[in-house]
């Protein structure tokens, strides 16, 4: 029995081999890109915020924003004033808004941010919140940098009882801020 080895010179041309390898590489890169891009699309993510709290002799508690990881418009946030047991005493929208005819918000700096386009109903509400001693509006908000966003330096005032305040807040109460897009509480601070 004789074994013969025959040489076969037929095969895939080098040009076709290169074209196939490039095509396979492109398809593989496209698949990896789509896979990696799916990790980047997470939708709305909640920012986080840090606050400080101080109390003045009038019975007012100032909760000042120290840091916010991502700035969003004030309309994206709401606040909660909670008593010592965690029960919500007051809550609401931060930004002055007219929601289907219902004027809401506690931003006392509204007139400084809207210029000539101020809505009369919202201006009236802002003035009422600012002039109240705390008996109707226990919490006010001041957008100190007037950018319309929750940002460092902005300040909540929770009114307690004192010689010029008539609000419910006390030393063992807390203020929470919620990001409405996701429903997450982005920060909380104990008063006092």
Question: How would you briefly describe this protein structure?
Answer:
Keywords: Membrane, Transmembrane, Transmembrane helix. With 192 residues, the chain is an alpha+beta fold.
Helices and strands in order:
Elements: H1 14-40, E1 49-55, E2 60-68, E3 77-82, E4 88-93, E5 97-99, E6 102-104, H2 110-114, H3 120-131, E7 139-142, E8 155-159, E9 174-179, E10 184-190
Antiparallel strand pairs: 1-2, 2-8, 3-4, 3-9, 5-6, 7-8, 9-10
Region (Disordered): 152-176
Protein name: Type IV pilin
InterPro entries: Flagellin/pilin_N_arc, Pilin_N_archaeal
How does this structure look, described?
With 192 residues, this protein is α+β, with helices and mostly antiparallel strands. The chain has two domains: 12-41; 49-190, Immunoglobulin-like, CATH 2.60.40. Helix content is 23%, strand content 29%. A four-stranded antiparallel sheet has the order 1-2-8-7, with no helix packed on it. A four-stranded antiparallel sheet has the order 4-3-9-10, with no helix packed on it. Strand 1 and strand 2 form a beta hairpin. The radius of gyration is 30 Å and the shape is elongated. The N and C termini lie far apart (102 Å).
